[in-house]
Structures are given as C-alpha cells and as structure tokens.
Amino acid sequence: MIAKARSISHGSAMTNYATKHNRADIVLTRNLDEGLTPLAMWGAMETIHQKYEPKFRRKPVTKPTLRMEVSPSLEETKGWTLKDWYDYAIRFLDEFKKEVQAKDGKKKVKSKFNLDRAQIFACLHFDAKSGIPHLHILINRIDLDGNLMNDSFIGDSVVKAADAINVERGWELPEVIHEAHEKEITEACYDILRGMSSYDWSSYKHGLESRGYKVHEQRDKQGVLHGYTILRGNSRFKSSTLGKGRNLTVPKLEATWKKLHPVVPSVDKPSSIVGNSQATEHNSARQSVAQSKPKMPSVFRKILSVDGKNYSIAMPVDAYKAMKETIESSDESVQFENVLNVAMLLFMNYVDAATTVSESCGGGGSTSSNWGKNDDEDERERARRCAQHANWLCKPIRKYKGPHR
Prior knowledge:
single chain, alpha+beta, BirA Bifunctional Protein, domain 2, globular
C-alpha cells in the first residue's frame, strides 16, 4: 500500500472530483450531516472556515483542506466490500491521528487539532485504465473547535501511517515493491538492447511498450531527445535510476548497446569490395534519412490557457474533425467548448491541465498519468478516444451512498 497527501485550496473542485459519477462510492463521512450532496459537504467545511476566519486574520489559512490518496494493491484488496473499505479507512485515520497528535505535541500551545472533531469524507475510486482501487480522503484542516492541523511534512505522516498498516497486515512495503520493479525494468532494458541487431531508439522504445510499459520522452523544442521515464502502472522510473552508472540514460544508451554487442573480427575484404560496400551503405543511409522525413499534414493549432499557464495544441486537422464529431451534443456551447478543450489537452498528454479544466466546469475524474497513444492507433482513433474520455470526465455528478460514521 502507498499513500500521499498535500494541503489544497481548491476544496470545491476536489469535492466534485472525489465523488464523481461512476468513479467513487462514498465510504465514510465524519462530522457531516447525513444526506448532504457533495457540494453541500464542501459548503459545511466552508462554514467552519468562515466561522474561524477572524482567528487566523494575522496569518490566513490559504490551503484549508487536506487531500489524501491511499492505494493498496489489487492483490491486497481482492474481494473487498464497501464495509471492508470502511474498516480500512477507519484504521488508516486512526494511524494518521497518531502522527497528527505527535506533531501537535511539539507545539507550545494549549489548543490541539482533534481529528475526531474534524469534518472528513472518504470515497473509493477505481483507476480508469488499470482498475486499481484507491481511497480519496478529504479532511478539513480546521476542526469544529477552530484548531488548525499542522501540515508540515504531511506527506511523511501519511507514509508512516501506511507503513504501520503494511507491517501490521504483512503487506509488502512500498520501498521493497519499488526496488523489485526497478530491477525488473532494468533487466527488461538490457534484454531489449541485447536483442537489437543495431542501435535504434524507436526499436528500443517499442520493445519496452510491447512488454506493457509506457515510455515518456523528454524532448526539447527542436525535438531532440534528452531523457525518458518508464511508467509501470502508477509508478514512474527515471532512466537515471536504472542500470549501473546511469548507463541506460539517453547519452549512454548506444554505448551500452555496443558493450552488449562486442565486435567480432572479420576477414579483410578486397578494397574494391569494401569501397562498393561503403558506397552502398552511404546511399542506404541517405535514402533512410530521406524516407524518415514525414510529410507535413494540415495541422490545427491553438493555445489554451489553464491556471495562467499556456498549453500549445497541435494536431492533424482530420483528427481535430473526428474529435469534434465524437463529442456528445450539448445545448450549451460553453459546455461543448469545455469538453473539446479537455479532449485536446488529453490528445497532447497534458493530463493535469485536462483534469483542471474538467473540474472547473463541474466535472472531474480519474485519468491515468500514462495517458497517451496506444500501439497501432492512428491519430483519428486517438482523437476519438480522447473525446470519449472528455465526455466521461465532464458529466454531471451523482452521489453513491455508503457507510457513515
């Protein structure tokens, strides 16, 4: 099981996201009236924020909500019911409470944040691609008595809580799992390089993807490759952490291939034959370069601004038309435009920006961090898939009822 947490300011959008239709069941609520809609739950938290605003006037609380994601593995949660998830959420919060109390114990103040007096709700999500279940937990950092949760090193606190439960249940620790996966990927990289008759980045990348991994390239504005990251499920592995002495990074990758393919001495050929061979190789190389130059298709371009940051969109016009045709019709042109923007951002693999736009228009949902082009998928099919996922992300919210506390 792994866990992460951070304080956020956008509680309303996160509430929508955490309770999105077909993405979540509400597993647990605490200090919130039964039957509240998602936005009403956030409204109840805002009421507490406003009530104690004068108390924090000298140092305003800009991030009053704590967002946590807790994810056991598929094997660890096989056969779980909502009741199992409820019990698990309670156990995790109890362990997290110890960490909060330990921090508050170091503060020289009389009033202490009380997790039992905090407004909390937890929802169960399933990843859109992998199906891996995980909990989203939202906590009001200002409790009902006006005490503020200390969020210093909050990420370390949830990791410690998760580790305690891992040990308690005999689950593998995240570090052990990560190390095993890192070794597995390193061996795969070497195996692919051994099987290549000549060094070629595209062949290397395809070899990794054919084994179920995703490869995220880091290229500059001129398209030159400078680095890459391998994604295994929800985990990311930088090339600099793989292999030995950074020998699987882009600058050293070809040299590593050469070490795995030692040169075998060959019998000398007559000079005329060698000359003809070199000429043939030179011509073949020129033809290969010429053939590799892609024809420039008609391209649709647009700049989208999300939270003050500009995102460049560039896609074939045919793909753009296919995308627009796939977006579900809406009576509101604004909603159609929002869905289209989300689809275009997904097409360019700007997943975080796409999620932000979908949340801002009342939607939200889970999108895999390794969202991108599938093998043997043409641009129009990819555009249609992005549009379908954008339709899904921007649908209105429905609430599922689960156990309460």
